[in-house]
Specification:
single chain, mainly alpha, Tetracycline Repressor, domain 2, about 70% helix, about 0% strand, elongated
Length: about 190
C-alpha cells in the first residue's frame, strides 16, 4: 500500500522556488533543497524528479506568481499607473520575496547552456514584452500615451529597463536611484 504524502506539494514547491530565486541553480544543492523544503530526498525525487526538473517546475510556479502581480497591476489603473505598479513592486522588495527576478537570474546563469531554461526565459521575456505592449496600446486608445508612438518599441525599451532594474536590485543599488531610472523610463511614454 502506497504511503500518502506528508507534505503539501504546492507549499514545498514554493519553498524550492524561493531557494532557487535567492541562491540560483548552481549554488543550490540537493541537500539545501531537502532541508529548506522540509522533505526527504526520496520524496523530492518521487514528487518532482531530479533537481533540474524541480527547477523547471519552480520557474513555472514563478511565472504564475508574476501573472498574479500583472493582473493586479491592471486592475483599475491607467496604463502608466499599471507600469509604475510593476516597477515599484520589483524595486520595493521586502522580506516576503527575494531580490531580483528568478527568470532574469536564470537567464543570466543558465540560458546559454541549458536549452530548456533558455526556452522558458525567452518565452517569459516575450510574454512580458507583449504584456507591456498591450498596456501601452490601451494607454494610446485612452489618449494617455501619444498614439503616434510605436507601442512595440516603447514596450521593448521599458522591458530592457525593467530587466536592468531587476539586476540592479540584486546588486543592492540605492532605491532612490532605481526610482529615478524608472521615472526616466516612464517619461518616454509622455514625450511628444
Amino acid at each position: 500500500m502506497a504511503r500518502s504524502k506528508e507534505f503539501d506539494e504546492h507549499d514545498v514547491l514554493l519553498k524550492a522556488m524561493r531557494l532557487f530565486w535567492e541562491q540560483g541553480y548552481e549554488k543550490t544543492s540537493l541537500q539545501d533543497l531537502v532541508t529548506h523544503m522540509g522533505i526527504h530526498r526520496r520524496s523530492l525525487y518521487d514528487t518532482f524528479g531530479d533537481k533540474h526538473s524541480l527547477f523547471v517546475k519552480a520557474m513555472e510556479q514563478y511565472k504564475k506568481t508574476v501573472a498574479t502581480v500583472k493582473a493586479e497591476a491592471r486592475r483599475g489603473r491607467t496604463a502608466q499607473e499599471a507600469i509604475r505598479y510593476i516597477i515599484d513592486y520589483l524595486i520595493e522588495a521586502n522580506d516576503e520575496r527575494p531580490l531580483g527576478c528568478l527568470i532574469v537570474n536564470s537567464a543570466t546563469e543558465l540560458a546559454l547552456r541549458d536549452p530548456e531554461v533558455g526556452e522558458i526565459t525567452n518565452q517569459s521575456f516575450n510574454v512580458e514584452e507583449q504584456y507591456l505592449t498591450d498596456i501601452i496600446r490601451t494607454g494610446q486608445q485612452t489618449g494617455e500615451i501619444p498614439a503616434d508612438k510605436d507601442a512595440s518599441l516603447l514596450a521593448a525599451s521599458l522591458q530592457a529597463t525593467i530587466i536592468g532594474l531587476r539586476v540592479l536590485t540584486r546588486a543592492s543599488t540605492d532605491k532612490k536611484k532605481l526610482h529615478r531610472i524608472a521615472d526616466a523610463a516612464i517619461a518616454m511614454l509622455d514625450a511628444p
